[in-house]
Amino acid sequence: MARVGGDTFGLLGLEVDLAPETVLAVVNEPLTVEHRQAGVQITLGILRLGDADGSGSDALKDANIALQVAKRQRQSPYCYFSGNMLHDIRERVRLLDELRTAFECEHLHVVYQPQINLVSRKTVGVEALLRWRTEEGEYVSPECFIPLAEHSGLIVGIGEWVLRMACREAVRLREAGHPLRMAVNLSVAQLRSPAFFAMLDAALADSKVDPGLLELEITESMAMRPDDDIAGQIAQIKRRGIAVAIDDFGTGFSSLSYLEELDVDRLKIDKAFVGKLTTQTIDSSIAATVTQLARNMKLEVIAEGVETEAQMELLKGLGVDEGQGWLFARAMAAADLKDWLRARDE
Ligand code: C2E
Ligand code: MG
Ligand code: MG
Q1: Would you say 77 and 20 are in contact if contact means Cβ atoms under 8 Å apart?
Q2: Closest ligand to Cα 274
Q3: To which H or E segment does residue 172 belong?
């Protein structure tokens, strides 16, 4: 056994002795520290030496790759190394390099998707969404590149750029007679960056946007990390007059008592729950539960991924305030948004 990093240990031995169940059982035994019981949680990356080629330090690297995969997956506390992992890592590194270049060469752009009041059918806001078109003209999904950007820290720079673009667009829209709320997605890496509030204040000052038009979206899974003092950070955002929405609500296993501590304005029902709505299941749906919760907590609620008239009627029946989805409009470039608003006579 060796200590190979600050909180990383290496074990070398026979496979029968080092079965993951055996190792986990040993570690799960609580420790007594100064008369208190303390639990330790570990994650294991396992390399069968039969699968290794190269030196001892290569074997350590491979075990470390399996460890990182295990940490990311979180389905199981351990993971065995496989050759495919190297392939996946090379792919991710390649994509990240391309993303970095695309960002530097200004090949990223921001599109805007309308948010509609379900009763008046008026456009009340837009959400800024990032798009990446590669040199070959293909679009890479944000679901694929945002996690990479978050993992590498690149999201801090990209997120600032999106925020500045969105602030500028909010000002332009207001000047054109559309004082729409501008929602911008925020990533946990941005909030953790020590310069976050200085960056936010500079973006506000440079664009001269009315902070009352701005809304920052924080995903539920990110809002539910009590160690990060998200509650304090949300309070600081709100102090600037900016609204806060919890994105993808219903997917992040909220602790309701913790949610009460967060001073947010809006819950966004995740599109997965909107897609599942039917007349038969509406009353017992997650969408109904979230809407009721929002009402009790005096929060606004918006549904994302509204694709059909039927879904819209069901959501309206539940008392959902606003909707966003392909039924109303896809995300559009700023110029197209202006035409779209004009065509709707807004
Ligand atoms: P999100 O913030 O929950 O954004 C809503 C997603 O739903 C968008 O996907 C949007 O295009 C999609 N959508 C809208 N209407 C419909 C519909 O009717 N049906 C379906 N099936 N989908 C619909 P998109 O643009 O692919 O973005 C995916 C996620 O990537 C976003 O989810 C957000 O978490 C992240 N993202 C996008 N732009 C940014 C950004 O600038 N910064 C950060 N941190 N994350 C971003
Ligand atoms: Mg969002
Ligand atoms: Mg969402």
Answers
A1: yes
A2: 1
A3: helix 154-175
Compute CA distances 42 → 27, 31, 33, 296, whole Å: 8, 14, 18, 39
Q: How far is the CA of 176 from the centre of ligand 2 (A)?
A: 25
Secondary structure of 48-117 in HEC code, one letter for each residue: CHHHCCCCHHHHHHHHHHHHHHHHHHCCCCEEECCHHHHHHHHHHHHHHHHHHHHHHCCCEEEEEEEEEE
Q: How far is the CA of 89 from the centre of ligand 3 (A)?
A: 27
Q: How many whole angstroms from 4 Cα to the centroid of ligand 3?
A: 39
- Model pLDDT for residues 109-128, shown as the tens digit of each residue: 999 999 999 999 999 999 99
Domain ranges of the chain: 2-81, 96-345
> Is the beta carbon of 257 within 6 A of some atom in ligand 1?
no
> 114 in ligand 1 pocket by Cβ < 6 Å?
no
Contact between 286 and 79 under an 8 Å Cβ cutoff? The reply is no
Superfamily name and number for 96-345: EAL domain (3.20.20.450)
HEC states along 111-158?
Answer: EEEEEEECCCCCEEEEEEEEEEECCCCCEECHHHHHHHHHHHCHHHHH
Residue 301 has pLDDT above 80, yes or no: yes
Percent of the chain with pLDDT over 90: 73
Question: What is the rounded CA–CA span in Å between residue 22 and residue 20?
Answer: 5
pTM of the model: 0.86
The 8-class DSSP code of residue 30 comes to: P
